[in-house]
Amino acid sequence: MGLVFETSAWANGLWSGHCKASRIARQTLLQGTDKQQQFPQLAHDLHSMLYLRHEPARQENAPDWATSLLDQAHDLAEYAPLRARCARNGFAAGVACETLLQALLPLLPEAPKTTPRQTRQRGQDGTPGIGQESVTGEKENPASEDASAVRRALRQAMRQAQDAVDEAEVSIEAMGDAMGLQAGTGPGHAETLHDIEQVRQLWALLRDNPTMRHIAEMAGRLQRLGRAHKKCQVTPAIGRIKGITVGGDLDRLLPAELAGLRSANRLQRLSTLSKIMGKRAMQYEMQGEDSETRGPILVLLDESGSMQGDAEQWSKAVALALLATATEQKRAWWLCGFSDRVTHQHLLRHGEAGTDTLLDALAMRASGGTAFDPPLNAALRVLTEKPELRKADIILVTDGEAPLSDNVAAAVNQHRKEHGLHVYVIGIGGIRTKILSPIADAIYTVSGGSQERDGATVAPVVALTA
Asked: Using N-to-C axis directions, what is the helix angle for 147-178 and 310-328, rounded to 10°?
């Protein structure tokens, strides 16, 4: 139950779950309780205001200081967009509430130190009477003495809360997609306690791990760029009728539009021609079937000593973005880390990507030299031993130069010919990629230092595998 509102058990449970996952939320509650014993109840009120579709009913005899703070927050222009962002989204509401509570700490009235006489004067709810002062002479609601300062603080807090939600959702986008999780709700995606608990744990982990968080943010950016390049459906292709749209294709015009061209009325014919020329005529929307199906995604990741730093983080982001693509499309994902030998391998099928598994797969291991034969041989062995993985896309990410033996190149090309294997090479730092050109369908060269430019270069790889 809240302090001002009659909050629901479901909303209270969501906030309690957020506090269990967030160390910062727990610390904020402790600090607030030191100043005001009823602070945890105020937290339930604030969370419910943000999360519930309709504001809950108010309680009688609510403390003036709490009612005043919540009413001022509700009346600010920044409140409506923040609430729209958090409504029915347990993760966003928790993050926003945590941020707002931190900002509210300085605005809380100190719990008065009462004498026995003053204790007897307390109301039935355990709070001092309106206008009553403590022995220190402090009023119950000192914040009301400077309402404009309170509004400024609340306005800034809501902006910070909006930024905090944006930052949290961007950070967990790629890893959440890789694990098949969503931060909140959407069409066809119900919010379950299990899923939201995993999202919270993921955010808590990334917040305390700046390196992995940076990788996740880069991977999310690559996903968005890949989606922008993706063209899975060929709209003008001949296929089944998908619906009705507007355009100017004569072979797809509706009979009613064609009739206008044959009308005896000259003005109607001209009007129909104008609609066609302006691509405003009604026509069938056709959709061709996508005959090209993709198989697993095999990522060969260079982890030699020269990859330390930005290059390694960037390559891990590529691997994470590709895992997110594989999870979304229910495809297998295989990662092979290598230097002058294979250092580790991870095979994940749909639904198998957990937080611990991802951290292990994307851990930093840069050391040693570079050799291309070991990872390619490992990939061919996996493709041979597991028939369901044969039709695959291989993405090799490297910043090194190493020889490629003729027998390995021949084996890769034979698999490309017989099973439709695709091989894409991403070269970091301007290396000579000519060595790998005999086995590559495409080669992309990036600097490894510019996220924006390199992301745009690699986006087609993400799109091709999608």
From this structure: 70
User: What torsion do the CA atoms of 8, 13, 16, 17 make, to the nearest 10 degrees?
Assistant: -150
Which two three-digit tokens encode residue 293?
């199906």
- Fold for 297-465, please state it: Rossmann fold (3.40.50)
**Does residue 226 sit in helix, strand or coil?**
helix
Token reading at 51: 């999360």
Quote the pTM value.
0.64
Helix (H, G, I), strand (E, B) or coil at 364: coil
CA distance 1 to 254: 60
DSSP codes, 96-164 = HHHHHHHHHGGGSPPPP---HHHHHT--TTSSPPTT-B-TT--BS-GGGGGHHHHHHHHHHHHHHHHHH
Helix (H, G, I), strand (E, B) or coil at 294: coil
From-to residues of CATH 3.40.50.410 in the chain: 297-465
pLDDT at 13: 92
- Tens digits of residue pLDDT in 347-382: 887 666 677 777 787 887 878 888 999 999 999 998
- Burial class of residue 18 (count of CB atoms within 10 Å of its CB; 0-12, 13-18, 19+): buried
